[in-house]
TrEMBL record:
The chain crosses the membrane at residues 107-129, 135-155. This is SAC1 phosphatase. It comes from Asarcornis scutulata. Keywords: Membrane, Transmembrane, Transmembrane helix. Coiled coil: none annotated.
Length: 173
């Protein structure tokens, strides 16, 4: 009322159109901020608008995408934020860039092998052979191949994570 948005005696609860516009603007702003920092839209924005089953599914999808990005492709984004904010220190004696790290063959080959082996295991289950022993043999072979590559990836897990490369500055006090 002091700002002149409402007349004297009007209540905000009575302004359904304004409330809808305000909540949509709030949720859109949350999406924009989340996309900049996390790489996906904000979670739970449908609470602000109106909770739906589709919103629940999108929250699950955004959570999965965030998990993948956070662990496997977000190190460079964090380096960019640190560089932009000035929160980094680079060793001036070291001639090589701290951002350049040579990747080994296993970073591409092992995930592809695991996906192919898992897909073949599913295909063997869906397209059964002439006998159950033949089907079982194929499923065991492809299942063990997919489990084996998954175990190797887990064992070398820290090598697959895309961690930031820039080192934080020490606090100057």
């Amino acid at each position: 009322q002091r700002l002149g948005v409402l007349h004297v005696g009007q209540r905000i609860e009575e302004q359904a159109d304004f409330e809808k516009i305000y909540k949509n603007a709030w949720a859109d702003n949350a999406n924009a901020c989340a996309k900049q920092y996390a790489g996906t839209g904000a979670l739970k924005t449908d609470y602000t608008r109106q909770r739906t089953q589709w919103g629940l599914i999108m929250d699950g999808w955004n959570s999965l995408v965030r998990y993948y990005k956070n662990n496997f492709s977000d190190g460079f984004r964090q380096d960019a934020i640190d560089l932009f904010l000035g929160n980094y220190s680079v060793d001036e004696v070291e001639p090589a860039s701290p951002l350049h790290v040579k990747k080994d063959w296993k970073f591409l080959a092992l995930p592809i092998i695991m996906v192919v082996a898992f897909s073949m295991c599913i295909i063997c289950l869906l397209m059964a052979g002439d006998t159950w022993t033949e089907t079982l043999a194929y499923v065991l072979f492809w299942g063990s191949a997919s489990f084996g590559t998954f175990a190797i990836i887990l064992y070398n897990g820290k090598d697959f994570v895309d961690a930031p490369k820039l080192v934080q500055k020490e606090k100057m006090d």
